[in-house]
Amino acid sequence: MADLMFDYQFRLILIGDSTVGKSSLLKYFNDGKFAEVSDPTVGVDFFARTIQLPEGPRIKLQLWDTAGQERFRSITKSYYRNSVGALLIYDITKRASFDHIPVWMNDAKRHIEPHRPVFVLVGCKLDLVNNGASKREVSQEEAKQFGAEHNIFTVETSAKTGSNVELAFSAITQEIYQRIKSGEYQMEEGWDGIKSGYSHHSANIDFNNYIEAEPAKSCC
Amino acid sequence: MSDSEVEFQSADEGSNGDDGWEIECDFDLPDADSSTEFKSTETKISSQQKLSNPVETEQNKKCKHEDVKPVENFPSDTSMLHVGLGKLAVSSNNTEQYEECNMIQNEIKSTRFLNNDWGGWSSGWSVNSLLSTASALTNQVSQGITSVIGAPAPEQLATVGSQEKVETFNETPADELPESSFGSNYFLTNVSQITKIVETTGSKIINGGLDTLETVGKKTFEVLQEGDPGLLKKRALFFQNNEKINLSQVLQEAKEKSEIKSQQNVNQVEVKKEYAYLLDDFQGLIHLESLELLSKQCQMKLQTVLLSYSGTQLTDIQDTLVQIKELCDLDFDDDEKLMDSEEFKNSLITCISHISVDVKTEKILRVSNFIDEKLNAQFNNEDSIHDEAISALAELTAAAMELFYKLGEMLMIDTQCQQIIIKAENLSLLNEAICCRIRFIANKYACLSTKFDADGTSNNISDIYLESSNSSSYIQDAGQLLIPILQLSII
């Protein structure tokens, strides 16, 4: 029943190289658990969770977990269009996965057009570096610099300890919500990136009236 | 003066061939009567015109003779004609017009007989006549539209246009007449005259034509929008006719309705969970939606690929596509067949292994087993059986949607196209197995219900069977969505 009460629904997509930890990140966010063994994702998997922003609105996140494998690329591309945000995921112990981030980002930009998606850059497997099991190949500074260049939020997470997982998702949600408030994003017929939730319906009608009242004012 | 005839002819063709008439009639306008009236006018004119056709050819023959003789009473004849033309152009389409047309027609005939010697003229006039025909057509059309739509329309335009035209007629022939007898000189001036006429009439036609088109467009839109702001109803109508509404949309709406209901009931102690809401809750809708997306994409690709084939190659491919579709559409002989969880498991695993080994069956099997466990539990009251039944049906259907979606994904990237026939058959068998399982579950819950003899028992039982048949049809529809994906894989 709790799921019923949300103000907005955002569709987000998780993209990045194969085996960087997209599914594990999502599993922790969804179930609060870490899967020791994880099968490679087939095509696109789907999850949903409702979160509460500090300012009040409840937001249902529809999360698309895409397969990183090249053979699924034609399928995963279909899901870009209806997303409002993309989490760019890389493995901080694997240099190549960070080097491919610009490719993933441009892919998403191109397919989400004409909408301008919100990105966050998420480094995974922080626990492996912290406990010394693996060597870090991507420094925090590099990631920060990339984030500053493209004006996107960056964070390093661990799906095993759960550190920063919540932060990664709430950051992207917060940014999308800000863009709705500033009027950059609007709900559109035929685009599923943002939908108004059930409890928001009455507010939505007011919004339409407001739009219509505007030109009348300027006439007088 | 062949131009006036062409004017009639083209006006006639223009209005009869104009699709606009039928459209206007469909919209049931108050002035619909006048359109029929107008039509009858045109037919009369055209019949008159048949009479004058032979005369025209006769004149053309005579035009070949080179000897040009000035005729004494020519100026008065032409001016008479112009008056007549002016009347015709200005007059609106009431019944008096037929008589006027008659008169003018006779005048034209008589003038022609008198002046059948002004040979050089015809060459100059043929260009002019073309242009004036076109402008007359524009005027006629706009007049016609005005009368039909009943708008305060470009009457001004029509009258001004035709009057100006009459003026041009008056000037040009009168000036030219004396010169025409001087041979070569005549030819040069005539050419410059023609260019002028072409220029002025041409721009008039364009302006008039654009104005008319604009008026037509505006008026049409106004009429269309009458009592239907934003054309919402008409859009809905077209949508209904042209596009099949997506299954996921229907379910989405149903879910929203059930959300409204549950919100209204939120204060009551017991909230009845509805099927569509549960189906969404179990992620059935989102997977169905995704499957629809993939299916549509494949359908589009299929169409594009087919365009590149032709001849026997095309028919061969089309035959194969039809064959695949038929295999997927296998009719089930036994509508009453049931499957317990063990039978279901075996059947499912066999089918999936033939379609795609990468697809996991764990989830749907877990759901199926879990339902079996719940069926063996003790129920306190009859309403809880009903709720459990609806929930079980929704959960299994949702799991089936996910399975079909995963199958769709795997079929899309599959490169082994040799076993396509086996895949299609197994898809159909898989569909049947899931529906049998759904029926089995519905039957079980209905049996449990009958043990209680409460007031709502029969209602609850029919509700369970209703949702069971809904589930089956959703599953079958989802199975259909796999057909284009399967078809695409052979190309």
From TrEMBL, chain A:
PROSITE patterns: RAB, RAS, RHO. It holds the Pfam family Ras. GO terms for cellular component: cytoplasmic vesicle membrane; plasma membrane. It is a lipid-anchor. Its main location: membrane. One of its GO terms (molecular function) is GTP binding. GO terms for biological process: autophagy. It is found in: Cell membrane; Cytoplasmic vesicle membrane. InterPro entries: P-loop_NTPase, Rab_GTPases_membrane_traffic, Small_GTP-bd, Small_GTPase. Keywords: Autophagy, Cell membrane, Cytoplasmic vesicle, GTP-binding, Hydrolase, Lipoprotein, Membrane, Methylation, Nucleotide-binding, Prenylation. PANTHER family: DRAB11-RELATED. Belongs to the small GTPase superfamily. Rab family. This is Small GTP-binding protein domain,P-loop containing nucleoside triphosphate hydrolase,Small GTPase. It comes from Cinara cedri.
UniProtKB/TrEMBL annotation, chain B:
Residues 33-57 have a biased composition (Polar residues). It comes from Cinara cedri. Belongs to the FAM114 family. This is Protein FAM114A2. Residues 1-60 are annotated as: Disordered. Residues 15-31 have a biased composition (Acidic residues). Keywords: Phosphoprotein. InterPro entries: DUF719.
